[in-house]
Amino acid sequence: MAESRSSSLTALERRGWRIVFASSAGLYLVGSHWPRLEMDPVGEAGPSPDKILHFLAFLLLTLPAWWTGWFRTLIGLWLAGVGFAVFDEVTQWLLPIERNITAGDLLCDACGITAGVAILAASRPMDDPRSRRLAAQRGIAEATLLSKTSNWLVLGVTGMLGAVVLVPLAVLLADPLRIEARAMAVAGGALGIAVAGLVGLEFGTRATVRRLRRANACVRCGSADAAANCDNCGAEGVSQAWFEPPRPTAAAVFDAAWWPLLRAGVVATATIVLLGVFGLVERWWPDETTIARVVDFTVLVVAAAWGIHGARRRLARLASEADRRCVRCGHDLRGLQDAHGIANCPECGSPFLFGTDRIEGAVRSTQASDGETMSG
After folding, report:
1. Cα 256 to Cα 196, 300, 303, distances in angstroms
2. What does the domain layout of the chain look like in residue ranges?
3. Is the distance from CB of 56 to CB of 187 less than 8 angstroms?
4. pLDDT tens sequence across 36-46
5. Neighbour-count burial for 44-72, b at 16+ CB within 10 Å, e otherwise
6. What is the average pLDDT across 223-241?
7. pTM, whole model, 2 decimals?
8. How far is CA 253 from the centre of its chain?
9. DSSP one-letter string for 81-115
10. Across residues 241-257, what is the average pLDDT?
């Protein structure tokens, strides 16, 4: 939900993500500038853990960098990430720490940034009433959740618990994968913190959405009844602001997803085969087969993101007709256009909402008047 995040973040939430990003970037710079640091593979044929760590580090740095609200476009984020990678390599060369600039490191850095940007692009909200409504509700919930310092501490503890679990598992896998144990420990710790933290954030956000729906909360500050003017911030109430649109059926999801995902899989497979047949990576770095694997994985991530984005676009077209055709059974609802607010499909009983454009406009204008709005 990249765009909705940037448009509804509170000052404290933005500050929190900036602290997370600055701390992560600082730790990475300390590690990358450690004098005479070497991470050799286990055995002559083992993969280079250094290249894997470069990819993983920049992938994990890209996500909180976007959520800081500092970047208006994903292209700008990608360019800034590459600039940071170049700065990192150049300073390693300039400082007396016996480190050099390597094109392979820069390529793996760029692959990590590209994979992160692809994930963010695939998760952007679609331009249909259902997606806009859910994105707005999620943005309010995230801002409400992360406006409390205690919740940041909970997410931090959750991330540390994830590291505690993954570090030993990663070390156990070091010998089978023929990667140095400390490199695996670093990778396991970073992944554990990121995955557990994001999973905790997701669960917390969903719980907050459910709580705000039950309270019919203010669409700006989340603290009052949306049907009346908010006593806390003075925002005008928006009726039905927390209506939860029905989900499409599993058959509709499959129908929308199979072709974009199949197309993406074919393109990814063809790209990886061509890279292998023509040796487009190995010819540049004949002694670094790990770089080829990093490039292959990046191709898979970008292709998967492309396929998911295409499937979500097809679902968005279905959702854009939610006030004319039932998203559950396809029943024609145009004969009920005189209804106001929430009604039920006469065929399957699923709820739907008339006047979504008017309601969405009211929600956006209320949030924009906050003065905190930023473009994604």
Report:
1. 30, 20, 17
2. 2-215+247-321
3. yes
4. 656 555 555 55
5. eebbbbbbbbbbbbbbbbbbbbbbbbbbe
6. 62
7. 0.79
8. 21
9. HHHHHHHHHHHHHHSSSS----HHHHHHHHHHHHH
10. 80
